[in-house]
Amino acid sequence: MSGGKTIFKRIIDREVPADIVYEDDQCLAFRDINPQAPTHILVIPKKEIPSLAEVQQEDEALLGHLLVVANQLAGRCQLAEGYRVVINCGRHGGQSVDHLHLHLLGGRPMHWPPG
Ligand code: 5GP
Question: Which of 27, 72, 81, 107 has the greatest number of C-beta atoms within 10 Å?
């Protein structure tokens, strides 16, 4: 740990390098260090929200923005065959970094149900 920051906050603050593919005033998107598909991008808000379980009503537009950005990145990554967006939430949801993030996964067929 560094000053109590999550690894994603450290990426936002440019203290840890990442393969950043998109940034605006509200969010950052970068390639997952351990990709689970040919395309595996994380879209994160710059606002420090620990998980989906802790979003507030005031975050409604921000959450919509993250989805719009994920779809734009899917277009840029030529995921015309489809893709999957995942938000892991909490221990049972498989969340390992306590900073809200969307996984954008594509480039291969996905299975259902998830493990
Ligand atoms: P979660 O399990 O919380 O839903 O997803 C966290 C994701 O962050 C994992 O897929 C993991 O590979 C990714 N990750 C963890 N640390 C880093 C890092 O330092 N850099 C990048 N690019 N991805 C990371």
Answer: 27
**How do residues 42-58 score in pLDDT, each as one tens digit?**
999 999 999 999 999 99
Residue with CA closest to ligand 1 atom 20: 33
Backbone angles phi, psi at 26, to 5 degrees: -105, -25
**Spacing, Cα 32 to ligand 1 middle (Å):** 6
pLDDT at 61: 98
Out of 96, 98, 103, 105, mutate this one to test ligand 1's pocket (max ligand atoms within 8 Å of CB): namely 96
Q: What are phi and psi of 49, to 5 degrees?
A: -105, 120
DSSP the chain: -BTTB-HHHHHHTTSS---EEEE-SSEEEEE-SS-SSSEEEEEEESS----GGG--GGGHHHHHHHHHHHHHHHHHTT-TT-EEEE---HHHHT--SSS--EEEEESSPPPSS--
Q: What is the per-residue pLDDT for 1?
A: 47
